[in-house]
């Protein structure tokens, strides 16, 4: 189901946000367009069709862009760049406990209160990205297929709990890799900024309002090399930083 991010009894704003099932798209909806009955049971497609048909749709937000109905567009190009800020996250030690080269579900353990923190960042409108060195592939501890299978499960679990990961990047290379095809120096391997810059080039976030959270000095240096600030996680968890830096509004 689509999720309303404002409630009539608590939020006085005239424009509400409606997020799609996969959290990658927003509708900005005039408050008077919300039907009083059955709203929570509508699917994303039903919401969109209803609002378009009623002429009540203000905007559609797609990854990195805003869509305006043709009558509201200021030019022939109905898409406008939406520069949302981004949260870049290291994985091991931030998303999950770092047990060293984690490549399977059996060794993947979520950090404390992680789901709530990611749900909060998602609801605030941040892009959320993961950038992770994965030299366990180069060391033959697990394969790229293993990693992709694990990350599909990780992202699905996060979305089930109301958060999202918009995109992610990994670097399997290491200059001393035991597998020859992965033995090289890569500008994607942190502290190099390649993964961050590649995501920034695709999604066009507002880097001036973005931040990286990581538990290693290489994470922090990658952020500096990308021109964004960084916060060192540990022993405090990501959730504790989100609670202190992005407090929930009083109701």
Automatic annotation (TrEMBL):
GO terms for biological process, alphabetical: carbohydrate metabolic process
InterPro entries associated with the record: HAD-like_sf (IPR036412), HAD-SF_hydro_IIIA (IPR006549), HAD_sf (IPR023214), Heptose_bisP_phosphatase (IPR004446), Histidinol-phos (IPR006543)
Main location: cytoplasm
SUPFAM superfamilies per the UniProt record, alphabetical: HAD-like
Keyword Hydrolase included in the entry's annotation: yes
Keywords for this protein: Carbohydrate metabolism, Cytoplasm, Hydrolase, Metal-binding
Pfam family, one: Hydrolase_like
GO CC entries: cytoplasm
GO molecular function: metal ion binding; phosphatase activity
Cell compartments where the protein resides: Cytoplasm
Annotated TM spans: none
Sequence similarity: Belongs to the GmhB family.
Database matches in PANTHER family: D-GLYCERO-BETA-D-MANNO-HEPTOSE-1,7-BISPHOSPHATE 7-PHOSPHATASE (PTHR42891:SF1)
Protein name as annotated: D,D-heptose 1,7-bisphosphate phosphatase
